[in-house]
Amino acid sequence: MKKGKMRRLQLFSGQSLYASDFEYIETFDREMRWLHNQSLHQPGIGKGFAVRGEVGEREVKIEPGYAIDSEGREIILTKIKDLPIPPVVGNENNKPVYYDLTVSYPDEIMLEERESRQGICHEGGTVRLGEEPNFCWVELELDSNNNLTPTGDDLEKQIREGLRIIIMRAEIQSCKLNKKISIAQRRNARLTQGNRIVSGSYFPDPEKEEWELWRQGGKNSEPLGLKIFVNTSSAKFTIPPRYKAQVVGQRYVDETIDFNIDYKTLVPYLLEGFTNPIPRQNGKLITTGFYLFILMPRMNFEMPINYRDMNNSDFFDYTDSERNRILHKLGWYVEWLGIEG
Asked: What whole-number distance in Å separates Cα of residue 245 and Cα of residue 273?
């Protein structure tokens, strides 16, 4: 039915009906319901799927619940399920391992035969299939920004696209729960009312070289300005928000400020630019932060005071360490506003 035109079965008195007719009626109703779910709801948990598990235990209990995936399919658990945690001792450094527990709609080939019958003058067949949800522990690892992400690209994609729904997160060591389980990562099928707005400030670590040169044409191309990754994971956004951001800190640079570096120029100058926040990382939309790109054109102009350059080229010739030292001394940090919805 998905590949052709939508057809509704018509019945009349005395009509001969076949198993395929009843199959079509059931398929029509099911796919129309899935289309409704997909069109008017977002993937996530609608009700239930509460999880119980205490520190030191080797299994979790999952309460009955209802969820839908991004294709509109209903994921239903009708009775309490006891699920063992992954039997892992720890990682290679003997530290805890993190897992997300996900639930998804079962593949057709995985559906359990619940009832079969003998046919009259024909072979018998299955008349009841059990749609038991598919539970999967997804191992997590730290990415380059110290965020926990799924180890497999396929699993990460299925979670991001709403085919697998996260129920909880567990920290596991010595084959048992090492900490209290977390449900902060759960996805809600019910749309939030209105926009959710969160603001914050991001202070770069002075021990790290977080401010980077922004280049468009490769390693040796002329820098367009600066860029920095701003971590907003504390906001717990569930969908990538729209961001507004600004850089706070002193813009005026001269030799009176002790940067503990050798000056390439003694001409005082301004550091200023145009900001553009992009909530993407490695080409993917994310919910845990954004890259702030600062376009910093080089300009030369006459001013009534003793500086005349904006974004002096010598600033971009410093090493990454020296540039970050200058910006830290100037007190640069990022104020941001995220709008989800």
From this structure: 12
Show the DSSP H helices in the chain as ranges.
Answer: 19-40, 153-160, 313-317, 320-330
Q: Are 201 and 325 in contact (CB under 8 A)?
A: no
pLDDT band at 242 (very low <50, low <70, confident <90, very high): very high
DSSP element (H, E) containing 176: strand 176-177
What is the Cα–Cα distance from 313 to 60, expressed in whole angstroms? 59
- Do residue 56 and residue 170 come from a single domain? yes
323 with 248, same domain: the answer is yes
**What does the DSSP 8-state code read for residue 27?**
H
What is the structure's pLDDT at 33?
87
Same domain, residue pair 50 and 131? yes
pLDDT tier at 1 (50, 70, 90 boundaries)?
Answer: very low
Q: Give the span between the Cα atoms of 116 and 93, in whole angstroms.
A: 52
Tell me the longest C-alpha to C-alpha distance in the chain: 103
Domain count, the chain: 2
> Which pair of tokens denotes residue 297?
């054109």
Range 86-98 average pLDDT: 85
Would you state the structure tokens that stand for residue 233, as one six-digit string? 């994971």
Q: Which residue has the higher pLDDT, 274 or 255?
A: 274
Give yes or no for a contact between 257 and 315, defined as CB atoms under 8 angstroms apart: no
Query: What pTM, to 2 d.p., does this model score?
Result: 0.50
Of 263, 273, 108, 104, nearest to 187 (Cα)?
104
Do residues 204 and 171 share a domain? no
The 3-state DSSP class for residue 227 equals: strand
Residues of the domain holding 111: 44-177
Torsion angles phi and psi, residue 323, rounded to 5? -60, -45
